[in-house]
């Protein structure tokens, strides 16, 4: 009891909650908690959920596993493969945090995910491209330049 988990929510898609008690093998009672993004009048409310439904929605392997909350800093993580608990709610939360800070690119292994910031960001200079061409990928923030420079370097090596 007391674990922080994600539960389905009509408005937020997934909402952070704390397990209060296990009512049966398939039912849990949770209390909505703040995820630090602002005021939510539902925080503190108690609701009962079917664990099997949550597991199915979150894509959990086990039918009785609930998606556990990761600990995030303000910018989330640059590569979602580093998340301790990787599931739909964690991916959405990480992208939400990065989008709120106008950080449009996030890796998932070798894949670069882009979320439109809906404003111009100075992320495409020639100098920046050369940084991605000359420095190791892990030394710089996620960016499509990293993928294109990696492809360019590999093409030159392989001919």
UniProtKB/TrEMBL annotation:
InterPro entries referenced in this protein's UniProt entry, alphabetically: Kinesin_motor_dom_sf, Myosin_head_motor_dom-like, P-loop_NTPase
Pfam families from the entry?
Myosin_head (PF00063)
Annotated GO molecular function terms are: actin filament binding; ATP binding; microfilament motor activity
Which keywords does UniProt give here?
Actin-binding, ATP-binding, Motor protein, Myosin, Nucleotide-binding
| Myosin motor domain span | 75-159
Enumerate the Gene Ontology biological process terms: actin filament organization
Superkingdom as given in the UniProt entry = Eukaryota
Q: Where are the transmembrane segments?
A: none
PROSITE patterns referenced in this protein's UniProt entry, alphabetically: MYOSIN_MOTOR
The answer to whether keyword Nucleotide-binding applies is yes
Q: Cross-referenced SUPFAM superfamilies, in alphabetical order?
A: P-loop containing nucleoside triphosphate hydrolases
Listed under GO cellular component are: cytoplasm; membrane; myosin complex
Q: Which family does it belong to?
A: Belongs to the TRAFAC class myosin-kinesin ATPase superfamily. Myosin family.
List the PANTHER family. Answer: DILUTE CLASS UNCONVENTIONAL MYOSIN, ISOFORM C, MYOSIN
Protein name in the entry: Myosin motor domain-containing protein
Instruction: Supply the source organism for this entry.
Output: Aphanomyces astaci
Taxonomy of origin reads: Eukaryota, Sar, Stramenopiles, Oomycota, Saprolegniomycetes
